UniProtKB/TrEMBL annotation:
<dbReference type="InterPro" id="IPR002300">
    <property type="entry name" value="aa-tRNA-synth_Ia"/>
</dbReference>
<feature type="binding site">
    <location>
        <position position="584"/>
    </location>
    <ligand>
        <name>ATP</name>
    </ligand>
</feature>
<dbReference type="GO" id="GO:0005829">
    <property type="term" value="C:cytosol"/>
</dbReference>
<comment type="similarity">
    <text>Belongs to the class-I aminoacyl-tRNA synthetase family.</text>
</comment>
<dbReference type="GO" id="GO:0002161">
    <property type="term" value="F:aminoacyl-tRNA deacylase activity"/>
</dbReference>
<feature type="domain" description="Methionyl/Leucyl tRNA synthetase">
    <location>
        <begin position="41"/>
        <end position="182"/>
    </location>
</feature>
<keyword id="KW-0030">Aminoacyl-tRNA synthetase</keyword>
<keyword id="KW-0547">Nucleotide-binding</keyword>
<dbReference type="GO" id="GO:0005524">
    <property type="term" value="F:ATP binding"/>
</dbReference>
<dbReference type="InterPro" id="IPR001412">
    <property type="entry name" value="aa-tRNA-synth_I_CS"/>
</dbReference>
<keyword id="KW-0963">Cytoplasm</keyword>
<dbReference type="Pfam" id="PF09334">
    <property type="entry name" value="tRNA-synt_1g"/>
</dbReference>
<dbReference type="InterPro" id="IPR013155">
    <property type="entry name" value="M/V/L/I-tRNA-synth_anticd-bd"/>
</dbReference>
<dbReference type="InterPro" id="IPR009080">
    <property type="entry name" value="tRNAsynth_Ia_anticodon-bd"/>
</dbReference>
<dbReference type="InterPro" id="IPR002302">
    <property type="entry name" value="Leu-tRNA-ligase"/>
</dbReference>
<dbReference type="InterPro" id="IPR015413">
    <property type="entry name" value="Methionyl/Leucyl_tRNA_Synth"/>
</dbReference>
<dbReference type="InterPro" id="IPR009008">
    <property type="entry name" value="Val/Leu/Ile-tRNA-synth_edit"/>
</dbReference>
Amino acid sequence: SDRYEAQEIEARWQKQWEVAAIDAASDDPADSRETYYCLVMFPYPSGNLHMGHVRNYCLGDAVARYKRMRGFNVLHPIGWDAFGLPAENAAIKHHRPPAEWTYGNIDQMRAQLKRLGLSYDWSREIATCRPEYYRWEQWLFTRLMEKGLAYQQNAEVNWCDPCHTVLANEQVVDGVCWRCDTPVVRKNLKQWFIRITAYAEELLSDLDKLTGWPEKVVGMQRNWIGRSTGAEVSFGLENSDATLDIFTTRPDTLMGVTYMAVAAGHPLAQQAATSNPALAAFLDECSRISTKEADVETMEKKGMALGVNAIHPITGALVPVWVANFVLMGYGTGAVMSVPAHDERDHAFAKKYGLPIRQVIAPHAGDWDIDAAAFTEVGKLIDSGAFDGLPSDEAKVAITNWLAENEKGAERVQYRLRDWLVSRQRYWGAPIPVIHCHDCGAVAVPDEQLPVVLPTDLQPTGGASPLTECDAFRHTSCPRCGKPAERELDTFDTFMESSWYMNRYTSPRNGEAMVDADAMKRWAPVDQYIGGVEHAVLHLLYARFYHKLMRDAGLFDGEVVGSEPFRNLLTQGMVLKDGTKMSKSKGNTVDPKAIIEEFGADTARLFTLFAAPPEKELEWNDAGVEGASRFLKRVWRLLEKLDAASDTADGDVKALRFSIHATIRKVTHAFEQGFAFNVAIAALMELTNSLHSFNPACEAGKAAYREGVEALATMLAPFVPHFACELGERLGMAKMAVVTDWPAVDESALEQNEIMLVVQIQGKKRGEITVPKDAGQDVAMAAARADAAIARWLDGMQVVKVILVPGRLLNIVVKP
Ligand code: ANZ
Ligand code: ZN
């Protein structure tokens, strides 16, 4: 039939593409095409694609297809972030092992992705729950252990009871678990960490290289890493040989210290509590809040005196030591010198508990009522003995030097970033490749015993991980001394898997190494990464870190591949409905499957790309979907005029060719400048209108018309590939639209219709305008007024004379 039958057409073309293997990335060294790596964030196999996925993957597909048409050898892979809690929770609910649930979901979602006609190189598909994948992360971890970059330590950590696991700092959002929204509690546990802080400086300075990232994301990472410079100061303790060390960014205020404050977890507080039940109760209360700073900022500030005095390093004065709930154990040294005169928090605390306030910094001009409020700016030193009169910046140096000379302190750089807590007390994750031996301690599993395979047939119950009761897994022998030993029963945080998948795609079946150095050279780094902004800190920070770890493990040449994994980043906006985020919990989801069944994949694709710029929110509406469907039918009807015999005259061929090539220029520009697909599609809609109103009658007219419809089919291919192929075939195009070369702009078609005029006002050049070649005075004047730079010379003026020199000049004479 001659109707547009989406379902039939889409099935047919998908088969043809598969046969022709047009989506495969070529590793052939003889392939001379330039490479391009386009990556979308891989999905968690929850069971069903949601509209956020659809949007993400349609954006990526448009990029990948466009680049192929521009002659690039494109890598566009997909896979599954397959470990994690939802699988375990589903397993508990349905009494089936999580592996079964996971692989079943993968099959279902793979079919959904294929139905959308996304041009993935399926031969590179990976699932992170497969031992062939996670063995390399285990391997890298043992290398990190050798280098001291992975270590086990007792630490105060965030614990989520319902999830029965610890959480990384990044996974605590406003004091609650990122997964289940339950308030987290602090616990002291022995956990595995990776020393991301050793890379803090590089992670920070390399942000400057990320010119292809949204500034907002770069800013969020910069804040998260949080570099501060200051000093570490050692206070003595009365009747003790021990010291109390603090970190401060304001050593210039040292002479204003009136008390000290330590965190609840600080050894000094813990020790004092052994003989003080009220204090012990207070410390217990403090442990019930998360260690996240944002929460600490907003809660009520409370404290208690420890009954211990510290000794001021310069004056020797005694200052009382308090415990305060706003001092974090995990930052600096877990202790602060309190200067109520110059810090708001210390000021409020001093007021509340009647502690002295001692001003040592004065404003450069004017007075300050120190009892009313802290003076937190820099200024000049007063009441500071030998340092009196110095401005703050000089005093910082002078006091730090004095401390260094007297061995009571040193300059110090401090990062907000904490080491990455990677162990989880959960079952459905990659086993941590460690064996605990009574004699040898924590021993890394040797290479030849990797992977440590997770038993996949266990049944989780919601309490402790079933690994803890799996004797076959648990009992083993020590790789070092051979005596009976036990495996580590924690598994890795799933962010471990998602941190390096982008590099694995370059050699996904590699059984010899984590990645192949040559493949990395060919493909990495990712040219364009596309995904949600919610990963701005977590995933995107860990992936940057992992890339550097892999480089330093000698897996690829950092000089050639670079030190950053993602050259350009596009963070897509959310999909909304009725103005709020589309989500299951709100019950306002739109099922992509239903749209595809009713309208076809191309309509769904077109709508998601047309309705909003990629980085903006996309508001779902049914009228928009119907509009997209109507547009495709309208393009389809262009076929009717192809061979229609007509005895009338041609339409304006020049005008049509102008419109065709202006559209090519516009659409190409939209692709090259930040993927403004909505702009590109709007231009294609305009071209469709021009073609509809054109009458092809004679040879020249028919040729121009065909040129236009072919260009349209070609440029539609990245967005609606099935439709474009069908249209192309019916037009008799030589190749499938999706493998046709991207159309080139015929500059002569543009020149013919447009000329540039210099605009003079009172004899002075004030700008230039572009007008149709045959434009008269009125058209030229309208263009001049529409140009902001020129219009401001005409504003409020009366035009007394206009002289148009065709092809050259528009001369305007005005008076006030
Ligand atoms: C004395 C002082 C005087 C401070 C003053 C500030 C102003 P940033 O910039 O975020 O690094 N601090 C240090 N360790 C802390 C911890 N574990 N928990 C809570 N607060 C801590 O902040 C560094 C400042 O935060 C340090 O400088 C310290 O207070 C406090 F007029 O020392 B300051
Ligand atoms: Zn041993």
